[in-house]
Write a structure and sequence with these properties.
alpha/beta; 8-stranded mixed β-sheet; 4-stranded antiparallel β-sheet; 14 helices; about 15% strand; globular
Length: about 450
């Protein structure tokens, strides 16, 4: 039943805004148990295809119409996506959070409280570095959860880590920096931002201890020390010490530190060297990337130029979402949401791992129990690109590790698990097993 409903939504036989029949009514019409209907509706909600509100029933959500995107723009937006069969595909693209878990009720409550108390001054252009209320709440939260050492005035509110990197690249390029060390394999998005603004990425190998610090030859290094993307390793204590002794500027992308499942995450590097680290984070993996809300704490010598670049770019982020996020943090709703999401994502990760152990018993999974993705390494000589293309043809979208490399290296597949419920992840593992180890 779930598959039939899912296909009807994907094919738009159930249009956006359609209110589904009451579970008792549909169960009676189909002569099946009401529990089957309840489970099917819940599955649609878990997959972000429907929403439910008390008194309003279950309603089909809007799906983006890909036909409305021009062919050129679609090509640009899908350069890291392989095509899937239209209604049966399972998308394991990394970096996509569980969008169905967005705390709608808490956000609405916080937004109402903000609107009830908002002043005319709150709605002006304001400080391009962000609203004081959000910066005050953020600094307390970041000190407590990430160990940062900074004041509220050191925070620049940005539209995500991508903008933080763009502002840093512009500022560094203006000061004469033309190249930066990047992890290899590492974030393609980070490399693209640096390249676009005139800072050439220079690859530095990553191993089981993180970036090989002794191979860094540039004066700036961009890295993900708490949970390296895409290998999932944590920068080892010895490498952290070596990096802090190295004399250059560290750009710390703390992209998913909220999602550690076996223990508390390691503290941010910024807390050990505030004048050497430009720290960036966002709510993209904790709330939703569409919120376009993030933060940057840079060494104070760089802040005037960064603030000017932010002002010149967009005059500052929208005030209302900043004030709502500040309210969520102050009320504790944000922390409660994170605890719920961590529990949910751990179950999904466990389901994918169990499926891989069963259907790909010889695959080696790297990294720690954290984040929204995992990496499986493949035998030497395997073409991970060809394998990913075969997987897509079989209804599972993954990313080959080679897409995230600048230099050749061992093959692998990067699998995101946050956006799918456990049964779909088990099914994806089975399909991958059929591709990687065909009978």
């Amino acid at each position: 039943m779930t598959a039939g409903l899912r296909d009807a939504v994907a094919a738009r036989r159930l249009a956006s805004g359609t209110r589904l029949p009451a579970t008792r009514v549909l169960a009676a019409d189909l002569k099946i148990s009401r529990g089957v209907v309840v489970e099917a509706y819940q599955r649609l909600i878990d997959e972000g295809l429907a929403t439910a509100r008390t008194g309003a029933g279950t309603t089909v959500l809007h799906l983006a119409d890909e036909s409305a995107i021009s062919s050129d723009r679609r090509t640009t937006l899908s350069k890291l996506q392989l095509p899937l069969p239209p209604s049966e595909g399972i998308d394991l693209s990394p970096g996509v959070p569980d969008l169905s878990a967005f705390p709608r009720a808490q956000w609405l409550r916080a937004e109402k409280a903000v609107l009830d108390g908002i002043t005319a001054a709150d709605l002006g252009y304001g400080d391009p570095g962000g609203t004081p209320k959000l910066r005050d709440e953020l600094i307390g939260w970041l000190r407590r959860t990430r160990g940062v050492r900074a004041d509220a005035d050191d925070i620049i509110v940005v539209s995500g880590v991508a903008q933080a990197l763009a502002l840093l690249a512009q500022t560094l390029r203006a000061s004469g920096v033309t190249a930066a060390a990047v992890e290899d394999p590492g974030s393609l998005g980070a490399r693209d931002q640096m390249t676009h603004w005139g800072v050439r990425p220079e690859p530095v190998p990553v191993d089981d201890e993180g970036i090989q610090v002794d191979r860094i030859t540039q004066e700036v290094a961009v890295l993900t020390p708490a949970h390296q993307f895409p290998t999932g390793v944590v920068l080892s204590p010895a490498r952290r010490r070596a990096l802090l002794e190295w004399g250059g500027l560290i750009v710390e992308d703390d992209y998913d530190a909220e999602h550690r499942y076996d223990r508390a995450p390691v503290a941010a590097l910024q807390g050990s060297a505030p004048e050497r680290v430009a720290y960036a984070g966002s709510v993209s993996k904790s709330l939703a990337p569409g919120m376009r809300l993030g933060w940057m704490i840079a060494p104070r010598r760089l802040q005037p130029a960064l603030l000017q670049a932010k002002h010149d770019t967009d005059l500052g982020n929208p005030a209302l979402p900043q004030l709502v996020l500040a309210r969520l943090i102050a009320s504790g709703d944000y922390e409660r949401h994170l605890r719920m999401v961590r529990s949910r994502q751990r179950r999904r990760r466990d389901a994918l791992l169990a499926g891989l152990r069963r259907h790909l018993p010889h695959a080696r999974v790297t990294g720690v129990a954290a984040g929204l993705h995992l990496l499986i390494m493949l035998p030497a000589g395997t073409s991970d690109v060809a394998l990913a293309e075969r997987a897509a043809a079989n209804g599972v979208r993954v990313q080959p590790l080679s897409w995230h490399r600048l230099e050749p290296g061992p093959p692998g597949l990067v699998l995101g698990y946050a956006a799918n419920p456990p049964d779909r992840l088990a099914e994806a593992a089975q399909r991958l097993g059929e591709i990687v180890t065909p009978r």
